[in-house]
Amino acid sequence: MGLMKKTLKIATFNINGIRTRLPALLAWLEREAPDVVCLQELKTIDSGFPIEEIHAAGYGAIWHGQKSWNGVAILAHGTDPIEARRGLPGADDDTQSRYLEAAVEGVLVACLYLPNGNPQPGPKFDYKLAWFERLIRHAQGLYDSGHPVVLAGDYNVIPTDEDIYNTRSWLKDALLQPESRDCYRRLLAQGWTDALRARHPDERIYTFWDYFRQHWQTNSGLRIDHLLLSADLAPKLRDAGVDRWVRGEPHASDHAPTWVVLDTARKTAGKKGK
């Protein structure tokens, strides 16, 4: 048996308007060359998705748009993602475009944009928690399936105080509430590995810096974009990080791309001699 060396780089990026930030997206794709990309906050209807430009960059894509708000997409380099699910199960009346699943290179990739939940308390926070409960239920089934799965996206939750520059001005924010954090802990308790934290257990790493009060310039950030790995993928984690440079570009999204590199080497049959 021989060994075919291969890695798979999977990234998640809240683009905050794909039409507005298309040049930034294309520049990042060219420089960093991720194999799979989960995008959130497309902020465009399906017909407004720039598929021609994405194709020209070498990527196939599936997407689930929504006018002015939300919207998610999965991009795959050199191939078309095979759609497995559109929308999170459990609420047929939910019209918000926040969830996609696709098979790419033998991995089931889930792209999610969890509700922000502000202001809280109130109906938006109730919707956030209800959506989170649906995610937890669905994720349990994915985990129990035994398939290699990555849950990637903007979770809109700050897991711990180590994932924020300072809690003081965020104490009333939905991202920091005990209920939000408890949902995230319960999700992880199913067995998922928080890849960025597993790779950098003691570092202050942020994925989001808002546009106010010089938060980017002072590195006053939050870690709210997460990639969770199923049991069989966790041992294959080779690296994880944040492409901070993207946040420093002109007219940038308030998020930076966050990524993992997985070892997907497969054993192949060697040639037999005569």
UniProtKB/TrEMBL annotation:
Gene that encodes it: xthA_2
Which positions make up the signal peptide?
none
What are the alphabetically sorted keywords of the record? Hydrolase, Magnesium, Metal-binding
Which protein is depicted?
Answer: Exodeoxyribonuclease III
Pfam families, per database record: Exo_endo_phos (PF03372)
The family note in this entry says: Belongs to the DNA repair enzymes AP/ExoA family.
Q: Which GO terms describe its molecular function?
A: double-stranded DNA 3'-5' DNA exonuclease activity
Q: Ranges for the Endonuclease/exonuclease/phosphatase domain?
A: 11-255
